[in-house]
């Protein structure tokens, strides 16, 4: 058995009276794409805040590559909204992580520039975020995330704010990017189809206080082309069944 | 792109057209009333007379405008520096806000008519009391604008920077400071008008030269036309400064006006 890149053991978190995370245990192996699927307000974003250390855990532990997580975090985090800085050009938004790490602006630009074509942003380096469409902004935010060259991506509902058509396009695009890069990712979503299409494994959370209701493996072969193949639809149906009837566990 | 220029021009005219019309008709009504009602020009001079007198006394007006401009700009610069320093201190040490704001708020309740002569009494007829008075009236609005601007920073952007390992100072420089720019410029536009009024007020309370003292002398000599000529100059000065802040804002925040344009 390979080692885990990330492991959460019995993690819990409360905000005063509000019990948000009851008992969360999950693992992500290197190169794996894992999704967390759960109702709105379940505490999914809170899990990421614990990982990026903007919140402290109340109970449990988090291990990264087998060692307890402390100090500088090894994650590249993409917040729920694109969080692009309106005053920075796209190229300077994309290099933000490298700049914070101490790299010079010119070196960071040279490093990130070649990625623009692959992200469908060629020619938009000097544009400001306000000049881009929703899908392009999301790709720019993703470019900023992966150019940090961290060991793991944390994506919080990256396509949640997009219209259905753009979202489907972005899911296909991310899926095809996935096949070319050796990324490890944890994705938060409340979109069942998105979870099935993109993931190797899915954790389904209960409503607050969140526990892991079930964990399912998605055995669909890659490359995946069809968002709604019969095999995918069967898994979707099963997931929806679990989400809607959380008491009748399989 | 090529089409947007005439359209921008038309829309700019659409913005200032109504203002030109209302101000124009007001001046016209005033002119007609002063000309034909038989009112004495020492009570209400016609706009044409004000303009003629302004031209005739342009040397004296000019000589008295320069000290007002330097008092305004120097006082405002001091106020900006102080507001920036205090806003940063307050942003990094939150309790300072509760310690300092009451003092600043009280400073804003002091009536200028009382404080201006006192400051002149204490600091003489030179430039110092003018600078102090301009700073007094503009400091707090600028401080509030900056503090509010920092607070308006997008939480997601701060969480993102924190996840990248950015320090508190780094987060301030990369996110909080740029986020405050729209608030800063809104404060700047309001304060610059206060600044001119503050400078004139300080000169009115005692000065060797300046628009304020010019107005006082004209009034004492029963020359409302010259009072109004000085008012005309100060209004022009305020408008020019106001326009300059808008220009600086456009240069400093080129991204701000892009959202309106068509997206690809
Ligand atoms: N810093 C906080 N203080 C208090 N309550 C919070 C805080 N952050 C989140 N919450 C609450 O915790 C619950 C879970 O939030 P979140 O993790 O954002 O949910 P999700 O991402 O699953 O929609 C919500 O009810 C939210 O109001
Ligand atoms: Mg969330």
In CATH, the topology of chain B is named MetI-like fold
Radius of gyration of chain A: 18 Å
Largest sheet of chain B: none
Mean pLDDT metric of chain A:
89
* Inertia-based shape of chain A: globular
Largest interface, with Cβ-Cβ < 8 Å? Answer: A-B, 30 and 24 residues
Give the CA-CA distance, first to last residue of chain A.
26 Å
How many structural domains does the protein architecture of chain B include?
1
Along the chain, the helix and strand elements of chain A come as EEEHEEEHHHHEHEHEEH
Q: What is the highest CATH level, the class of chain B?
A: Mainly Alpha
CATH architecture of chain B: Orthogonal Bundle
What is the strand tally of chain B? 0
Question: Could you characterize what this model shows?
Answer:
The complex is a heterodimer of chains A (250) and B (264). Chain A is α/β, with parallel strands linked by helices. Chain A has two domains: 1-74 and 152-250, 3-Layer(aba) Sandwich (Rossmann fold); 83-150. Helices cover 31% and strands 24% of the residues of chain A. Chain A contains eight helices and ten strands. Chain A has helices at residues 44-51, 90-94, 96-100, 105-112, 134-146, 164-180, 192-198, 230-244; strands at 6-15, 18-28, 33-37, 59-64, 67-68, 75-78, 152-156, 185-189, 201-205, 210-217. In chain A, strands 5-4-1-2-10-9-3-8-7-6 form a ten-stranded mixed sheet, with helices on both faces. With 264 residues, chain B is an all-alpha fold. Chain B has eleven helices and no strands. At the A-B interface, β6 and α3 of A face α7 and α8 of B. The complex binds adenosine-5'-diphosphate (ADP) and magnesium ion. Adenosine-5'-diphosphate (ADP) binds at residues 15, 18, 20, 38, 40-46 of chain A. Residues 15, 18, 20, 38, 40-46 of chain A line the site of adenosine-5'-diphosphate (ADP). Chain B: Residues 61-245 form the ABC transmembrane type-1 domain. Chain B: InterPro entries: MetI-like, MetI-like_sf. Chain B: It is found in: Cell membrane.
């Amino acid at each position: 058995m390979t080692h885990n890149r990330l492991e959460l053991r019995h993690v819990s978190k409360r905000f005063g009276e509000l019990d948000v995370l009851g008992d969360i245990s999950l693992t992500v192996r290197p190169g794996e794409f894992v999704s967390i699927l759960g109702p709105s307000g379940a505490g999914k974003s809170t899990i990421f805040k614990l990982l990026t250390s903007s919140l402290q855990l109340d109970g449990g532990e988090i291990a990264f590559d087998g060692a307890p997580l402390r100090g500088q975090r090894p994650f590249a985090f993409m917040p729920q909204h694109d969080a692009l800085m309106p005053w920075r050009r796209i190229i300077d938004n994309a290099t933000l992580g490298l700049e914070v790490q101490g790299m010079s602006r010119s070196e960071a630009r040279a490093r990130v520039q070649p990625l623009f074509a692959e992200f469908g942003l060629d020619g938009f380096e000097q544009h400001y975020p306000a000049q881009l469409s929703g899908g392009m902004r999301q790709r720019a935010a993703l470019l900023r995330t992966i150019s940090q060259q961290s060991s793991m991506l944390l994506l919080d509902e990256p396509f949640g704010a997009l219209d259905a058509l753009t979202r489907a396009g972005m899911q296909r695009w991310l899926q095809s990017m996935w096949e070319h890069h050796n990324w490890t990712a944890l994705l938060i979503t409340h979109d069942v189809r998105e979870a099935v299409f993109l993931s190797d494994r899915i954790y389904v959370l209960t409503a607050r206080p969140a526990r892991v209701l079930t964990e399912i493996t998605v055995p669909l072969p890659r490359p995946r082309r069809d968002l709604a193949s019969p095999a995918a639809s069967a898994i979707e149906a099963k997931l929806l069944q679990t989400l809607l009837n959380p008491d009748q566990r399989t | 792109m090529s089409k947007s220029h005439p359209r921008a021009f038309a829309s700019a005219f659409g913005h200032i057209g109504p203002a030109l019309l209302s101000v124009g008709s007001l001046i016209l009504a005033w002119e007609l009333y002063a000309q034909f009602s038989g009112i004495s020009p020492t009570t209400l001079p016609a706009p044409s007379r004000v303009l003629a007198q302004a031209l005739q006394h342009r040397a004296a007006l000019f000589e008295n405008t320069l000290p007002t401009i330097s008092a305004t700009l120097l006082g405002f610069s001091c106020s900006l520096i102080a507001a920036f320093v205090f806003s940063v201190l307050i942003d990094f040490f939150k309790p300072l806000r509760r310690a300092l704001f009451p003092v600043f708020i009280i400073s804003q309740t002091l009536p200028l008519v009382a404080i201006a002569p006192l400051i002149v009494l204490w600091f003489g007829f030179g430039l110092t009391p003018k600078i102090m008075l301009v700073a007094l009236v503009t400091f707090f609005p600028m401080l509030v604008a900056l503090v509010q601007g920092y607070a308006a920073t997008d939480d997601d952007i701060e969480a993102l920077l924190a996840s990248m390992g950015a320090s508190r100072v780094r987060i301030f420089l990369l996110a909080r400071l740029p986020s405050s720019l729209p608030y800063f410029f809104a404060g700047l536009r309001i304060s610059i008008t206060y600044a001119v009024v503050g400078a004139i007020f300080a000169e009115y309370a005692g000065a060797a030269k300046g628009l304020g003292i010019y107005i006082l002398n004209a009034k004492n000599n029963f020359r409302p036309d010259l009072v109004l000529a000085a008012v005309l100059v100060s209004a022009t000065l305020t408008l020019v400064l106001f326009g300059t802040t808008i220009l600086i804002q456009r240069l400093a925040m080129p991204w701000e006006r892009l959202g309106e344009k068509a997206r690809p």
